[in-house]
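Recap slide: NPH3 domain-containing protein, sequence and predicted structure.
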Amino acid sequence: MAIMTRHAVEAFPSVDALCVGARCSHVRSNRSFLDVDSPRYRPQSHGSSPVKKKASARTSSFEKKGQTWVAAKMLQSDLLVEVADMSFHLHKFPLLSRSGRLNHLVFESRDTEKDQIKLDNMPGGPAAFELAVKFCYGIPIVITSVNVVALRCAAEYLEMTEDLEVDNLVSKTEDFLNSEVLTSWTDSITVLRACEKLSPWAEKLQIVKKCSESIAWKACTDPRGIRWSYSSAGESPNLSPRLNGSAKSSTSSRGIPQDWWFADVAELNLKSFKVVMNAIKAKGMRHDVMGSAVVYYAYRWLPGLTALDNPVSPLLRESSPTTDKKKNKVSFTYKRESGHGESQGSSLTNDVNGDVASQVLEREFLEGIVEVLPPQKDSVPVSCLLRLLRLSILLDVSLGCRKELEARSGAQLDQATLSDLLIPSCAYRSDTVYDVGAVHRCLDHFLVQDHIQTISQKEVPTSSGRDKNGDVCDCSHLRPVVGPHAAKMKVAKLIDSYLAEIARDGNLTFSKFQALAEALPDFSRTTDDGLYRAIDTFLKEHPSLSEHERKKLCRMMDCQRLSLEACMHAAQNERLPLRIVVQVEPSLSTLNSRSIYNASTTYNFV
């Protein structure tokens, strides 16, 4: 392949002067561009009958005058082509001999004197048409991974096929895509990003599909079988695999992480990212790796997730939502996906009451991310799912998207922490500090899934069974590692801690607190100390409760399952109904006589 040198750039004014020497990434890689006038891509003779070259219509250069391009040639131009806001003064012969569309537009009415054409739907705009015109005039052009998509779409639009001329622009761009782009990881990413601005032409020509398949195949390839290039000695790999050709150094001894491709794929817009992830899924990528890639992508384009990592501040917990609802807002930054250069540096800071158009864009983006999440359980950590749920509540996403996040979070609720469940509610929709309803729905999903799993485990043989041939086989590996209610007990402890936290909210209603406390079955709690602590906190923060409501709350706990310290605290608790204090006395006497005291499971009651 020809390498553009300084002399070549001076000879061909159409070539960007930046493509010179070591500073040019294309020259350095010696892969990413194609001089279509090089000997490799000229028509070659076959057999004993050499193909005669046609008379060249080469012009010396193009001159730009404002919004007008003029072919600098001795003959006066006889064709005016308008593309967007640019006008091209050209000659019919070199263009009509290579472009079927221009040929048809000029001679469609058999008016050979027609000298003005307007191309409204030209893919790639004036820049792509300029390169195509230079190609028709015989001026050398450089095809790179940056402009090959626009050139390929322009060639298809102008119908520059082999039927009109051998080695026309369609065949040259196709050859470059197949031989250069699809064999390179970096070029495949670059071309796929360029396709984002040339839809639906890029999809119609299968460029998006080919690049996505190429990226998926490379992402699923075992990194140990790839040679990696380095920018300099001693540095980490530049994460650009060379799959055909040798590299100067290998990282087999250093080890390549499985997420080496996350950062490059994360630069794609949402539509392209979905296509790539579907292709990767079809290749058989592990669901947990795919889930990590989606989470990486979400953090790349929704930095608000990082702002939601920390639990709500103590000031927000201690303040009354009715006196200062503005504290219940969560501001975050969202990077737009409108263009590559703009998306890298531009950001938009919004809150719940921000610009409507921005919220719509953010909402659609979050809903798209949820659609890409792998369906398998544990493919995404529950902490990430709950952060997405927080953001979905703030953005008021569709009901289906929110239900999906609640169901997925509920299925893994036993892996969550208290800070994960502290989901702020929107100030303009609720007076409570936390969204208790969302947590309650997650708990309902967990209980349903746990019930289904418990039933399925009962159907599994506990020791041994027989295969289809009647032979005895060991089935001990199918037994659950933990007891059937272990996950439920973990969730019960978590929910009790959550109840104690939300009980501090003076605007939390009695019905919501009671419904969440009673959602768990009795056998899921090994001790009622956590529930007692939550009830006592609720009674302290809601002194206006009626006697009937206080009795209903206290009936939810079993005094016989309280620890010695809890019983001692309850016996002196004036906030409890007298009947509960009387019930605690026998338990306290029994515990004192048996001297049962477990310091590791005690709470500090106040």
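The first strand starts at residue 33 and ends at 35.
DSSP finds 27 helices and 13 strands in the chain.
(End of recap.)
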